[in-house]
Amino acid sequence: DDYVYLEHGAHYAIGALAVILLVTIQYEINEVITGLVGVVLIAWSFLSSVRRNKKLADAEGKAPTSGEKAEVSSGL
Question: Which residues of the chain register pLDDT less than 50?
């Protein structure tokens, strides 16, 4: 619930990896590129979620000041 775009990013990464798998039937693609595509998509979605959460917190006036510690939800 905290990272709303993370699930979407994981699905995009799976889709991109499936496309890469199909392309590798015809062409050679380095494993580093394949791995980086997944990592970049998931990292991008994670950072987008963090940025969204920060904007929402700022809009609600609940952003912690420099002296306060932010409460982190463990999700459990």
Answer: none
